[in-house]
Amino acid sequence: MTTPAPVRPGSTTPVLAIHGGCGAIPKAELTPGADLAARAALRRALDAGYAVLQAGGAAIDAVTEAVAIMEDDPVFNAGHGAALNRAGFHELDASVMEGTLGRAGAVAGARRLRNPVRAARALAETSDPLLLIGEAADDWGRARGLVTVDNAYFSTPSRREALDRMLERERQGTLQAAPERDKHGTVGAVALDTHGHLAAATSTGGYTAKPVGRVGDTPIIGAGTWADDRTCAVSGTGKGELFIRRALGHEVHARMLYQGASLAQATDAMVHVEMMDPELTGLGGSGLGGSGLGGSGLVSGAGLCAVDHSGNVALPYNTEGMYRGWISSQCVYVAIHET
Amino acid sequence: MTTPAPVRPGSTTPVLAIHGGCGAIPKAELTPGADLAARAALRRALDAGYAVLQAGGAAIDAVTEAVAIMEDDPVFNAGHGAALNRAGFHELDASVMEGTLGRAGAVAGARRLRNPVRAARALAETSDPLLLIGEAADDWGRARGLVTVDNAYFSTPSRREALDRMLERERQGTLQAAPERDKHGTVGAVALDTHGHLAAATSTGGYTAKPVGRVGDTPIIGAGTWADDRTCAVSGTGKGELFIRRALGHEVHARMLYQGASLAQATDAMVHVEMMDPELTGLGGSGLGGSGLGGSGLVSGAGLCAVDHSGNVALPYNTEGMYRGWISSQCVYVAIHET
Q1: What kind and span of H or E run contains B67?
Q2: Residues of B in contact with A247 (CB under 8 A)
Q3: What does the DSSP assignment read for A45-83?
Q4: Which of A55, A199, B85, B330 would staple A6 via disulfide (CB 3.0–4.6 Å)?
Q5: Does the beta-carbon distance from A136 to B211 stay under 8 Å?
Q6: SS3 of B319, please?
Q7: Which among B127, B136, B259 is the nearest to A213, CB-wise?
Q8: What are phi and psi of B221, to 5 degrees?
Q9: How far is CA B334 from CA A12, B134, B297, B330, B331, in A?
Q10: Is-contact A224 A186, C-beta < 8 A?
Q11: What is the full DSSP assignment across B179-219?
C-alpha cells in the first residue's frame, strides 16, 4: 500500500469528492462570513486530496489528506471543532478503506489523536488490528509518531455553547426540537486515483451531548465507510445508528454489484428512500414497539459522498444542506445548499 | 420488541442454531471429558434458546438466552472463560440484531458485564445508542440492572495458561505457529421464531494476547452479526478483521436478496471461497505491499451459523472443527468435528 512514485501516475482520470456534514446549516442562520469560511475550507480539503491524486498517489492517501484538512478546521464536526459528549469532552471516530484488497483501519472513542483519520490510515496498512477503541487508539497512534494533543484542543467556543444548549433542552424536555447542527455532523472523502483504485475515509466527533462511549457509523466499515474497486467508494453523514442498521456503505456496493444499479440509483435509494422509511426511523406507528428512535423527522437526516470506478460522483442528501464538493481535471465544485 | 405472550405462538416452525467457535479444537487434543462437557454445554444453550421459541417468544430473546448460556460456560471464549488480552485482562464484545426492523445493539471492550449479550439486547430495544464501548458499556448496563462482576471473574486457569504460552511464543518469534484455540473463538446463535422473525447474536473475548483496545467483527453489525427477515440471520466466528473487510453478515444477506443465492450457496461462498482467498488473507504475494496479515493459512479460519426465513440451517466452517448445533421440533444436532 506504499504510495506510488509521483512521476509515474496511471492512466485513469482521477476524481475526489468530499462532504462536511449534512443538515447542519439552516440557510437563514449561516452568516456570509461563516458561509465563505466553510467554502474556503472545503476548497482546501479538495485541493489537498487532489494534489495527491495528481502526483499519481493512492486514493487512500488522497482521502486521508482531504479528511485531515477538515479535521483541522473548526468549521467541521471532526478533530478541532468536534462535538462534545454529554460529559463535556471529546470522543472521536474515524475510518478508512481502500477498494483493491479491502484493507481498512478505524478508531473509535479516541481522545488525544489530533487527526484520527491518520491513525485509521496507519491501521489500514496491515488491517490487523483493524479497529482500536478508546485510549488504546491514542496510545497506538502516539507510539507510531502521530501527533497527540490535550482533549481540550478539539473544543471551540461554538461547540461548548452547543453543548450548553443541548443540556438545557434536555432539562426542558425540548430535545427533539434541537437544530440539526447541534445533533450531528461528519466529514468524509472518496477518491478514484490514476491507477483506477478507490478509497473512502470518514471522521467525526459524533453529536453534541452524545452519551459517553457512544459510537456511530463513522468507524464501522460497511456502514459509514466502504470501498471496493469493482463498484464504488462511499462515506456517509447522518444518523449513525440508522446507517449501521442498513449497512449503508456495503448496501450501496451490493446494489451496484448484484443488482446492476448505477451509483446514482444506489445512493439515491439509500438517502431518499431507505433513510426516509418511517418504520426504520421510528416515525411510523409500527406494531413492533415503536418509538425509541425519537419522534422527529430530523432523525432521518442523511447524506453521503460517493464515487464509482468510472469516476461518476454522487452527493445526495435529504436535509436542508450539506457541505460538499468534488474536483477533477474538468471541474472544482463547492456547495452548501442548492449552490 | 416486547416478547409475545407464551400462550399465543405464531404458525412458523421455529429453529435455532449455534456455534461455539471454530478451529479451536484439534481433535487429538480434546480429552473425552472436555468433549462431553462441550457437547453438554452446547445442548444447554440450544435448550435455553429453544424454550423461548417454543413459548412463542421472539427470536431476539432466544438468541440472547442461548448466547448467555455459552457466556456463562468456561468452555467457550466469551464471558466466563473469555480470552485474555496481552495486558492480562478481558475486553468483551457482543452484538444482537433482529430482522424485522433491523434493530440492533452492541458493546465493545466491556470489562465488567457478566453477560455482554444482555447489554447488547437491552441496547437493541431502542437502538439509540446502538453501540457503546469500554467502561461506558459497563456503566450503562449496570445502571439498567444488568449484573456486573470483577474483570477476574472471566478468567479461567486454561485461559491464563494460553496467555502465558502466547507471550512466550512472541518472545521466541513463533507466534504464527500458535494453535488456533489460542488465537480466537466466538459464540453465536441465530433463530427463526414462530412469528417468522429472524435474529442473530454473537459474543467473544477476542483472541488470546490481542492488543489492548482491539475490536474484531463480533460487535460490528454487518460483519459478525446480521439479521433481515427477508433473507437470513448470520453469526460468524473466525478472523474478525477479515470478516469486517468482507462485511460477512451483510454480504450473505445481499447475495440472497440480490443474487437469489440460497443460504447454503451464500454461506459456503463466504467460508470456503472468500475466506480462503490468498489476496485477502495475505498468503498471496500481491503487488500491493503484501504481508501484514500473517504468513499462516490459519488466519483464514472461518465459520458461521445461519438460518434463513424458511428455516434452513447452515453451519459451514473451514477449520478442523467447530462447536455447533441446531434444534427444531424434528431434531437436536450437536457436533464438534465431523460429528
Answers
A1: helix B59-72
A2: 221-222, 226, 247, 250
A3: HHHHHHHHHHTT--HHHHHHHHHHHHHHSTTSSSSTTPP
A4: A55
A5: yes
A6: coil
A7: B136
A8: -65, 125
A9: 54, 34, 27, 14, 10
A10: yes
A11: -GGGT---EEEEEE-TTS-EEEEEEE---TTBPTTEE-STT
Question: How does pLDDT run across A88-100, given as a tens digit for each residue?
Answer: 999 999 999 999 9
How much is the average pLDDT of A197-207?
Answer: 97
Q: Is B295 on the interface with A (CB under 8 A)?
A: no
* Residue corresponding to grid cell 442523511: A302
Residue B23, all three cell numbers: 478451529
Pairing of strands A225-227, A131-133: unpaired
Query: pTM for the full model?
Result: 0.93
A292 touches chain B (CB under 8 A): yes
The size of the A-B interface in CB pairs under 8 A is 177
B287 and A CB contact within 8 Å: no
Among chain A residues, CA nearest to B239:
A128
Q: What is the pLDDT of residues B213-244, one digit of tens each?
A: 999 999 999 999 999 999 999 999 998 999 99
In the prediction, which pLDDT does B234 show?
98
Three-class SS state of A97:
strand
B180-199 pLDDT, tens digit each: 666 668 999 999 999 999 99
Q: How far apart, in whole angstroms, are the C-alpha atoms of residue B34 and residue B301?
A: 22
Which grid cell is A339?
449552490
CA pair distance A13, A15, nearest whole angstrom:
7
Residue B321 burial (10 A CB sphere; 0-12, 13-18, 19+) = buried
**Alpha-carbon distances, residue B112 vs B76, B138, B139, B218 (angstroms):** 17, 6, 9, 17
pLDDT mean over B291-312: 70
Separation between Cα atoms, residue B91 and residue A109, nearest integer Å: 15
Q: Which of A26-35, A102-111, A153-162, A204-213 has the lowest mean pLDDT?
A: A26-35
Is A305's pLDDT higher than 90? yes
Handedness of CA B217, B222, B228, B232 (dihedral sign): negative
CB of A180 closer than 8 Å to CB of A319: yes
Residue A142 CB-density burial (10 A; 0-12 exposed, 13-18 middle, 19+ buried): middle
| Residue B339 pLDDT level (bands cut at 50, 70, 90) | confident
Q: Report CB contact under 8 Å: A136, B214.
A: yes
Answer whether B69's CB lies under 8 Å from B41's CB.
Answer: yes
Per-residue pLDDT reduced to its tens digit, B39-97: 999 999 999 999 999 999 999 999 999 999 999 999 999 999 999 999 999 999 999 99
Mean pLDDT of B264-278: 90
Residues of A in contact with B240 (CB under 8 A): 130
What Å distances lie between residue A338 and A29, A231, A300, A316, CA to CA?
A: 15, 27, 20, 11
Question: Distance between CA A130 and CA A132 in Å, rounded?
Answer: 7
Phi and psi at B191, nearest 5°, equal: -150, 150
Q: In a 3-state reduction of DSSP, which class is residue A222?
A: coil
Asked about A194 being catalytic, the answer comes back as no
The interface residues of chain B toward chain A in range 18-47, judged by CB-CB distance below 8 A, are none
Report CA-CA distances (Å) from A303 to A294, A314, B61, B299. 19, 10, 34, 36
Question: What 3-state DSSP class applies to A323?
Answer: strand
Calculate what percentage of chain B has a pLDDT beyond 70. 87
Cα-based distances in Å from A105 to A215, A221, B67, B169: 15, 8, 29, 26
Give the helix/strand (H/E) hosting A123.
Answer: helix A116-124
pLDDT of residue B276 exceeding 50, the answer is yes
Say yes or no: A118 contacts chain B, CB-CB below 8 A.
no
